[in-house]
From TrEMBL:
Residues 349-376 form a coiled coil. Gene3D superfamilies: Vps16, C-terminal region. Pfam families: Vps16_C, Vps16_N. InterPro entries: VPS16, Vps16_C, Vps16_C_sf, Vps16_N. Residues 517-840 form the Vps16 C-terminal domain. This is Vacuolar protein sorting-associated protein 16 homolog. One of its GO terms (molecular function) is actin binding. Its main location: membrane. Plays a role in vesicle-mediated protein trafficking to lysosomal compartments including the endocytic membrane transport and autophagic pathways. Believed to act as a core component of the putative HOPS and CORVET endosomal tethering complexes. It is found in: Late endosome membrane; Lysosome membrane.
Length: 844
């Protein structure tokens, strides 16, 4: 244990800090870090170096080289910089490299040096040039802050959704501030800058002078400032050598330290651990690094070579040409177990396990001591927690063996924490490997989440490792293996040195019918890479036809898209219908003739398009019928056109004549004759309107006859009936109904006596009763034939006579009908009479 704590350095009485090596860097740097622009991503992210930046002492002819390495120094990308001078580099939260140029353009590159996109920070920045820039991270995304040559600030809090904000002007600012940084308070990005002894806070509308509480007197300038990883705390380095530490709101002072060095530091970053009360700042000069906090002493490290500090969630990464190290506060669990002469439960349990392996009886003594204090559960938990914070696998195993040993003596210790820690450490050790180069700590891993870690492995094209982790952790396929295979396939289609057939076959063999994988998404990536034929081959593996259509349309393979849309079964007549969408696309893409020929080969699409044309494009519908020589539908079309609103009578008759001709060509003589009759009727109705007035146009033949009768033109009605051969029965019904509606009972009686009624006289009774005229109805009831006599008498309410007729006819159905109309005492005698007639009939 004494040896293990040799690299522990106390800061005051309550905290220890340790620095251990992550990697021995094997990169072949030809220049010092001081001669490069450097950017390192947090959470064990990659390192970007822009060699030979634009400096006066450098030859103008030498082009700089942008190189990207993993945290272990493994090269990921290298490219010759051909754009303008770069002022600053920084990594976004998605591990995209942002290169801020002097002209305000920001170029975005991927992890492997692939150019993604670019954007500008505005015309004002372009005109005044960029003096300095910062890449910062907020809960909304990654932002960029710019200091221009006019000493004005412009920033965007999220480069993914670029909204530029020009910050207020600082009064009297004639030169660049001595130092500045970005703060995030109340979900808003601010700029904090130092001008001589004064500090100014810029928000979107105001510039406010601020003063750190409790600042030592005599300060004439601020040389450096640093905000913590979580933006909660701020550190200020003054020209007096004092380091002020407090809250980022500048409302509370935490502590102040005099380092007795007045030279401005190269870097100053915070070194703090989540949920720890200790606060420390790491300050680096050319050959000295100092850790200071709320203690009279500091921790000092000699730097043998140029080093660069990377603030992390729970510490600071320090890399140089030869090494990559991690400095952090020793976690409480590790301190309790490993500090000298510790009697903590975890320390005793670790000793007990070691003695047990030696087969020593001391193991029992240690174990009994823990059990007597009732601290065995706490001891196991301490060992599990400490294992998570250890970087060396041998120490992890030692602590986990101790935890496993202690668990054996507990009845109800939940195994979840032990199992999950074992899984997490196995994943962490895998990604910390030199060839992978992601030195995550346990705290960083938990903050980052497994999904983001998998995304980062995919970005590095480490697909096998990502799949192994998914399978080991038994993640759902859609979140794990399927998603990674889809990313692999999207990368595979970018390999242009492999033929389309080989790539498509390899992707299908690897993916098969894996759930959650969309071949259409992979095909879209192939098309984006300019491999149209490969995209089509991949779409053949997509089981959902509907998913193929949008990309086929984008690739201008509209005819194939139409076939796939029909296969999908989405053929509703609506703007959201796939077939409908493809049809409109085809219509805009092809000339009229080719479009119609394409439809003829797809009957279902043709039918759907016809339905659409019936509602919105009637002329196109007519052209379709003409091209297909579909005279039957063409005739129907012209009939419908003849009823168009506002059409003059001559045009309507002409349309009907065209329809009749079409029906004759279709050999539909019935439809042709009916159309000709309609033409005759239209002309007659127009003549009736001219001669008699009133509204006749567009009435049916029956309604025309009825209207004539109602208006008193009986002879005209009869002539119309003869002209159009209306049967007598139908004419009598029409006249009967019309006269009853007029309540012209005298004319109705004359009409009934004009000749024998072809419809009988029961309808007269019914119509009169419908008009509530029983008196007139009785006139016709006596003239009704025997077979309908009973029904007529019942209609006029003569139940007794109806009973007599029914008895006379000896008809059981009629007797039952009359009996059903007998109600109360008034018809009691009639009912008895019917019952007696029934009884007599049964005796016979």
């Amino acid at each position: 244990m004494d040896c293990y704590t040799a690299n522990w350095n106390p800061l005051g009485d309550s905290a220890f800090y340790r620095k251990y090596e992550l990697y021995s860097m094997d990169w072949d740097l030809k220049e010092e870090l001081r001669d490069c622009l450097v950017a390192a991503a947090p959470y064990g992210g990659p390192i970007a170096l822009l060699r030979n930046p634009w400096r006066k002492e450098k030859a103008a002819s030498v082009r700089p080289v942008l190189e990207i390495y993993s945290a272990s120094g493994m090269p990921l990308a290298s490219l010759l910089w051909k754009s303008g001078p770069v002022v600053s580099l920084g990594w976004s939260a998605e591990e995209e490299l942002l290169c801020v140029q002097e002209d305000g353009a920001v170029l975005v590159y991927g992890l492997h040096g692939d150019f993604r996109r670019h954007f500008s920070m505005g015309n004002e920045v372009l005109q005044n040039r960029v003096l300095d820039a910062r890449i910062f991270h907020t809960e909304f995304g990654s932002g960029v802050a710019i200091l221009t040559g006019a000493h004005r600030f412009t920033l965007s809090a999220n480069v993914g959704d670029l909204k530029l904000r020009r910050m207020p002007e600082v009064p009297g600012l004639q030169s660049a501030p001595s130092c500045w940084t970005t703060l995030c308070q109340d979900r808003v990005a601010h700029i904090l800058l130092a001008v001589g002894p004064d500090l100014y806070l810029l928000d979107h509308a105001t510039c406010s002078a601020v003063t750190p509480p409790g600042l030592a007197p005599g300060v004439s300038s601020f040389l450096q400032m640093a905000v913590s990883f979580t933006y909660r705390h701020l550190a200020l380095f003054t020209d007096t050598g004092y380091i002020w530490m407090g809250t980022a709101s500048l409302k509370e002072k935490l502590c102040e330290f005099n380092c007795n060095i007045r030279a401005p530091p190269k870097q100053m970053v915070w070194c703090s651990r989540p949920r720890s009360k200790e606060r420390a700042v790491v300050v680096a000069w050319e050959r000295l690094m100092m850790v200071v906090g709320d203690a009279p002493e500091s921790i000092q490290f000699v730097l043998d070579e140029d080093s660069y500090l990377v603030p992390e969630l729970d510490g600071v990464r320090i890399f140089s040409r030869s090494t990559h190290e991690f400095l952090h506060e020793v976690p409480v669990a590790s301190e309790e177990i490993f500090k000298i002469a510790s009697m903590a439960p975890g320390a005793l349990l670790l000793e007990a396990q070691k003695e047990y392996e030696k087969e020593s009886q001391k193991a029992d003594e240690y174990l009994r001591e823990i059990q007597e204090l009732g601290q065995l559960t706490q001891a196991v938990q301490q060992c599990i927690e400490a294992a998570g914070h250890e970087h060396r696998p041998d120490m992890q195993k030692s602590l986990l063996r101790a935890a496993s040993f202690g668990k054996c003596f507990l009845d109800r210790f939940p195994p979840d924490s032990f199992v999950h820690m074992c899984q997490d450490l196995r994943v962490l050790n895998a990604v910390r490997d030199y060839h992978i180069g992601i030195p995550l700590t346990y705290s960083q891993y938990k903050q980052l989440t497994i999904q983001v870690l998998l995304d980062r492995l995919v970005l590095r094209r480490l697909y096998p490792l990502a799949i192994q982790i998914c399978e080991y952790l038994r993640l759902p396929e859609v979140q794990g293996v399927s998603r990674i295979l889809a990313h692999w396939a999207c990368y595979k289609v970018q390999q242009k040195d492999v033929s389309d057939e080989d790539v498509a076959r390899a992707i299908n063999q690897k993916l098969g019918d894996t759930p959650g994988v969309s071949y259409s998404d992979i095909a879209a990536r192939a098309y984006g890479c300019g491999r149209t034929e490969l995209a089509i081959k991949l779409l053949e593996y997509e089981p959902r036809s509907g998913e193929q259509v949008p990309l086929l349309l984008k690739m201008k393979r509209s005819k194939l898209a139409l076939s796939k849309a029909i296969e999908s079964g989405d053929t509703d007549l609506g703007e959201q219908s796939l077939v409908f969408t493809v049809l409109l696309h085809l219509k805009n893409e092809l000339n009229r003739g080719d479009f119609f020929m394409t439809l003829r080969n797809q009957p279902m699409a043709l039918s759907l398009y016809r339905q659409f044309c019936k509602h919105q494009e009637l002329e196109t519908l007519k052209d379709l019928y003409n091209q297909d020589d579909n005279h039957q539908e063409l005739g129907s079309f012209h009939i419908q056109a003849s009823y168009a609103p506002g059409e003059r009578i001559e045009g309507r008759v002409a349309a009907l004549q065209t329809a009749a001709d079409a029906f004759y060509k279709a050999k539909n003589e019935f439809a042709a004759k009916a159309t000709e009759d309609q033409m005759r009727l239209l002309r007659l109705q127009r003549r009736l309107e001219d001669e008699l007035g009133g509204q006749f146009l567009d009435l049916s033949l029956h309604d025309t006859v009825t209207t004539l009768i109602l208006s008193g033109h009986n002879k005209r009605a009869e002539q119309l009936a003869r002209d159009f051969r209306i049967p007598d029965k139908r004419l009598w019904w029409l006249k009967l109904t019309a006269l009853a509606d007029l309540e012209d009972w005298e004319e109705l009686e004359k009409f009934s006596k004009s000749k024998k009624s072809p419809i009988g006289y029961l309808p007269f009774v019914e119509i009169c009763m419908k008009q509530h005229n029983k008196y007139e109805a009785k006139k016709y009831a006596s003239r009704v034939g025997p077979e309908q006599k009973v029904k007529a008498l019942l209609l006029v309410g003569d139940v007794a006579q109806a009973a007599d007729v029914a008895i006379e006819h000896r008809n059981e159905a009629e007797l039952s009908l009359v009996l059903s109309h007998c109600t109360g005492a008034t018809d009691g005698a009639t009912a008895d009479k019917i019952q007696r007639a029934r009884a007599q009939a049964q005796k016979k």
